[in-house]
Write a structure and sequence with these properties.
Blueprint: H1 3-11, H2 23-31, H3 40-55, H4 61-77, H5 81-92, H6 99-111, H7 115-128, H8 133-145, H9 149-162, H10 167-178, H11 183-196, H12 201-213, H13 217-229, H14 236-247, H15 251-264, H16 269-281, H17 285-298, H18 303-315, H19 321-334, H20 339-351, H21 355-368, H22 373-385, H23 389-402, H24 409-422, H25 426-436
Helix pairs in contact: 1-2, 1-3, 3-4, 4-5, 4-6, 5-6, 6-7, 7-8, 8-9, 8-10, 9-10, 10-11, 11-12, 12-13, 12-14, 13-14, 14-15, 14-16, 15-16, 16-17, 16-18, 17-18, 18-19, 19-20, 20-21, 20-22, 21-22, 22-23, 23-24, 23-25, 24-25
Amino acid sequence: MPLDALVVAACHPPTQSSGTRNFDKDITDEALCLKNGENPDQSRSIISACDRAIASGEAAGNALSKLYASRSFSNRDLDEYAAAKTDAEKALSTESVHALAWRAMGWVELNEEAFESALEAFDQALRAEPGSAHALAERAHTLRRMGRYDEALVDIDIALALREDIAWTTRQKGWIFYYQEQYERALTWFEKSREVAPERLWAHQSIGLAHYQLGNYIEAIEAFSEAARYSFGEADPYRERARAHVELGQFDKALADAKKAVSVDPSYSYAHQTLSLVHYKLGNWREAAKAGERAIQLDADNGYNHFRHAQALSKLPGQDWGAALVPANRAVELDPEAEGYLNQRGYLYLNLGRYDEAISDFEAAVEIDPGYSVALYNMGITHAAAKRGDQAVNALARALETDPDREHRDVARQIIEQLLKNGLKDDAREAAALINDSKPAGSI
């Protein structure tokens, strides 16, 4: 079988053939790029075809470069990043380098978060193949990950002007808006991507994520359910659907989906993280702690994993605040700008009687988010525990002014009444009056 036919046959099974194809476009545009390897069997078939073509000895120069690059893309799709890097390096070492080789190396650099090097690789690909819609889209993807959204939009618009029929490129425009929190605009482009390739997991997954951010949880569940139909061993659709069920208070359904995500991919830390969340919502503290611990074992550099573990440990019988403080410290260490992590650690300091450290964390949380009423409320409780009545009343008044419908209003009133008996300054008495006149309690 001729060299080109070996690869094309793997990319396009005979039953799907539509006649004679162009070797370059088959590999570049359809089979090997941009997470087209949602089907791992297809990726493995491509690798086998490349192996046979390389072993045949017929390929040299540009063609050999392309085979190594093609194999690199498929190894990447299988999360075999070391093999992908080796193949990309081989693709660049041939006598004549194909544009696809530079693109393969670009993805290697992206995986290592070497963004400037990735940009240079995609620039080289564009020099080798001017007007490559794929290379432009990949450069846009890199710029987006660097937070350079305006430049990313320029590249993606040019790519779309060149080729409107590439679903991944269309979806990339959606991601540029998504990461700028422009979720309505993101949803529009995700839906356009689905029109191009409706039988892809991420065609539906991206739509579900946009709906989730917009608070459209029913629509999000529908989209994640569609994504699950096209999943090849992917846990994400179940994990994301579980989160949407949590938002709707459908905890039994959320638990079933979280468990499904773990069973589909036991090595996926986010699945265990979500399982911890659902158990926490159900009051299953030990199970929540166990799932949180497993998430940490799988990904110790994810702050939210430590946060989930800390929350669960703080609820266990006996309430070992010191034990919970260990993951809480790590969460803040990993992400010092996460106000929720600071509030959680402050809560633990409060219960350990370390009031000044607690106040420091609550103040830091409020500095990040001035409307964070829970941190303000906890600050008030801490000041009260430290017998600093005036500061307690002022913090509680700020909490209820920020969000008067919180359920802690009645508790705040009881604290204020006790503090009033002990005597307060005039400004604190005015704050107490504001609390007593605030709206009825709602839900946290």
